[in-house]
Task: structure prediction
Amino acid sequence: MLLDHLNRQLRERAAQSLTRTRRTAETPCAPQQRVAAGLGVESQSARDMLAFASNDYLGLAQHPVLIDALAEGARRYGAGSGASHLVSGHSRAHAQLEAELASWLAPHIPQAQALYFCTGYMANVALVQALSAQSATIFADKLNHASLVDGALLSKAPFQRYAHRNLAVLERQLAACDTPIKLIVTDAVFSMDGDLADLPAMLALAEQYDAWLVVDDAHGFGVLGAQGRGSLAHFGLRSERLIYMGTLGKAVGAGGAFVAAHPTIVEWLVQTARPYIYTTAAPPAIAHAVSASLALIASAEGEQRRAQLQQRVVQLRTGLAVLIAAYPAAGWQLADSATAIQPLVVGDNAAAMALSAALDTQGLWVPAIRPPTVPVGTARLRITLSAAHSAADVQRLLDGLALAAKDLYDRTSD
Result:
């Protein structure tokens, strides 16, 4: 009975072009990767692909400095932590990294302390659930990451959502709220759209209505602001009311995540956040590698990589604007984003999958994103850029999209 039910559900997903597939990368995360298993194919021989699919925004995932630091950390601390942080798994590498991360956020959060997590998903669920258990109401942008949504749902606290970036609605919700604790929860850079939350205006609302602003900066940390210190630095914000989550497996190139906040909030998480308490700590070697990456990100090389990334963003957006104007019948729309996330909205699920498959035949790996990750009718290619992409790489993608657009135009004109 269970298998019959699940098979029916899987067939229905396939009919709606919602089936997800995995590919197996045989080489390090980089623009040029050797990949096995194609779209909708269980297995096939590996082939070389030009990827616009990862969140390795600064191209650090295979940087020699990080690789050497990871190896050094393994030699010093071993392969695994052996236990949760609160039993015996909290190493010197974890403690040192938390101190460094707190220092990074100290200009923006007075008395900031940091807490290291295995993943960003765990950090968000832990943070929202633990804080919302205390007579709180949660206010959230409808396009927030799934981990923020799940944290709110698991908390069982009152949960109010507002249309994307609609702060007028948020203000009305805050004004009508009478719970003792109010949490405004938002992505800083929205993961499927690439646009930024208006954090200055949101912080002003938090201060006006005695609320706290929880910022998920997964896609801003390492990329935005002076020395890559993230969205708070980008906007020049400072407040005790800020609660910050950053990930370390995207622009930082390693793994894990952290929360930075007032010491009382961090201590509350240590005492009550179940995803922190009841999981084995990440290998100390990863924390050791992250420390090396932070130094690299803040250096002149980090600044150069951020500048290279911005050049690729401008190149892609300029080329896509020309392409969309040349083939308006395709119905493609370029999202309003100045970040490394450049969504090309196609609309229909099957059309997005077909476009991704057409690029795949040209050796271009660009994933199609469909509901429920994005709203119905807004299926898209999520193009992600890296400082490791060359100008020639971006031009090859533009040429591939032009070929696909021309093919679509020719078929619809017949």
About this structure: The first strand starts at residue 24 and ends at 25.
